[in-house]
């Protein structure tokens, strides 16, 4: 009877060594914080691209009521085609942007026969979103061809370089900001803040002499405009939830947490702006609450799969506070109301959401210890410097070209 335990004891060192080896293997194969940008489920990524396409319809409904003439349909067509060709141009030159250049033949074999067309589809629609937001800054005095080149440059250069810095290229190379641990889960900085800084550069370059063209009037009646905003908001809510849930990375995240966090953020944003309006005896109009909800959606985009529901609620509350206070402050320097809305909802709320990633309680981020508010701030600053300066140069060249060669006005759909 005593020999059995003694016999088993001989295997204890082997069992202990096996357990130790497994623990070492688990530690070395545990997902890194940089793995958040690698999407293993490519079908979900395609579905996410379709939700981004649905987002365009929501933005189109919201934007359509503020355009000064019937060119809005043409602008949408230009945005879509420019995003497609812009990403295609970026695809062609991405080999030269890689730190480790691949052989040309190998590069194209991987590109054509591997899964990277899924990423191309996703990137193309993200670039379309940037162009859709930027379209409101373009004055009607520019020609269709000039606007085409602006949208194409934004897609192929400004957005492409940003995606290279943060997400990496179409192939398996890491972005520079990705290497140091910068996190932007689904595009609060790379899409929304980028669009806002481009809009700010356009407002800066076009100057006060063109502000009458930048300031758009409401074409629809108040009831019709509110109906359009409500419809656009619900479409964006659905599209945002689907987009965030589809961006599943190597780091394990729960889809139900993403959907709950998205909804919780909207509730926090609308609740905070309603309470502030009651405290300061101001009207919490439906339009104002919709803008707060959109600001919350932008903010949670950076961390929707990485934070708790309580943190998501806090992110939404702060987004609502920003939407409540900042318009009056920005209006002192920027006369165009719709430009102020873009800067706050897409720009400031995008920055806030990117910084709020530090509230993440995800195990991978906690174990890695790489999460830092300074890394997030560095990513925001790099994004602002590149987006604003590149857009400023682009619009300055456009103004110089128009003054030197032509002053053709942007044609309407009927004229085309």
From TrEMBL:
Keywords: Ammonia transport, Membrane, Transmembrane, Transmembrane helix, Transport. Belongs to the ammonia transporter channel (TC 1.A.11.2) family. The chain crosses the membrane at residues 12-33, 39-62, 74-97, 117-135, 147-170, 182-206, 226-246, 258-280, 292-308, 343-361, 373-401. This is Ammonium transporter. The lineage of its organism: Bacteria, Pseudomonadati, Pseudomonadota, Gammaproteobacteria, Moraxellales. The keyword Nucleotidyltransferase does not apply. Residues 45-398 form the Ammonium transporter AmtB-like domain. It comes from the Bacteria. It is found in: Membrane. It is a multi-pass membrane protein. SUPFAM superfamilies: Ammonium transporter. The keyword Transport applies. InterPro entries: Ammonium/urea_transptr, NH4_transpt_AmtB-like_dom. It holds the Pfam family Ammonium_transp. GO terms for molecular function: ammonium channel activity. Its main location: membrane. It comes from Acinetobacter rudis. GO terms for cellular component: membrane. One of its GO terms (biological process) is ammonium homeostasis.
């Amino acid at each position: 009877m005593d020999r059995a335990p003694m016999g088993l004891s001989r295997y204890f060192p082997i069992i202990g060594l096996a357990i130790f080896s497994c623990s070492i293997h688990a530690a070395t194969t545990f997902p890194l914080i940089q793995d958040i940008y690698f999407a293993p489920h490519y079908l979900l990524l395609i579905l996410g691209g379709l939700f981004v396409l649905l987002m365009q319809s929501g933005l189109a409904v919201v934007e359509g009521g503020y355009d000064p003439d019937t060119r809005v349909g043409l602008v949408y067509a230009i945005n879509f085609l420019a995003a497609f060709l812009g990403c295609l141009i970026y695809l062609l030159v991405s080999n030269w942007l890689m730190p480790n250049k691949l052989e040309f033949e190998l590069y194209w074999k991987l590109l054509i026969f591997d899964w990277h067309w899924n990423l191309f589809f996703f990137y193309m629609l993200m670039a379309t979103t940037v162009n859709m937001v930027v379209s409101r800054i373009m004055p009607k005095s520019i020609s269709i061809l000039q606007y085409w080149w602006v949208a194409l440059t934004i897609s192929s250069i400004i957005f492409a370089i940003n995606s290279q810095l943060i997400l990496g290229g179409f192939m398996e190379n890491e972005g520079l900001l990705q290497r140091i641990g910068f996190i932007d889960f689904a595009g609060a900085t790379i899409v929304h803040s980028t669009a806002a800084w481009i809009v700010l550069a356009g407002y800066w370059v076009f100057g006060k002499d063109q502000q009458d063209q930048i300031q758009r009037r409401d074409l629809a009646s108040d009831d019709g405009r509110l109906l359009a905003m409500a419809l656009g908001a619900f479409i964006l809510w659905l599209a945002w939830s689907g987009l965030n849930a589809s961006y599943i990375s190597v780091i394990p995240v729960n889809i139900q947490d993403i959907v709950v966090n998205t909804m919780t953020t909207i509730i926090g944003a609308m609740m905070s702006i309603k309470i502030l309006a009651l405290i300061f005896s101001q009207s919490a109009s439906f339009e104002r609450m919709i803008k707060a909800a959109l600001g919350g959606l932008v903010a949670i985009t950076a961390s929707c799969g990485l934070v708790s529901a309580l943190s998501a609620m806090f992110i939404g509350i702060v987004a609502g506070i920003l939407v409540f206070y900042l318009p009056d402050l920005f209006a002192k320097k920027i006369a165009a109301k719709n430009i102020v809305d873009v800067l706050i909802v897409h720009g400031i709320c995008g920055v806030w959401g990117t910084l709020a990633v530090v509230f993440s309680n995800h195990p991978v981020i906690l174990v890695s210890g790489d999460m830092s508010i300074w890394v997030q701030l560095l990513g925001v600053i790099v994004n602002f410097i590149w987006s604003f300066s590149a857009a400023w140069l682009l619009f300055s060249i456009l103004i110089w070209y128009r003054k030197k060669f032509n002053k053709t006005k942007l044609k309407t759909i009927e004229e085309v």
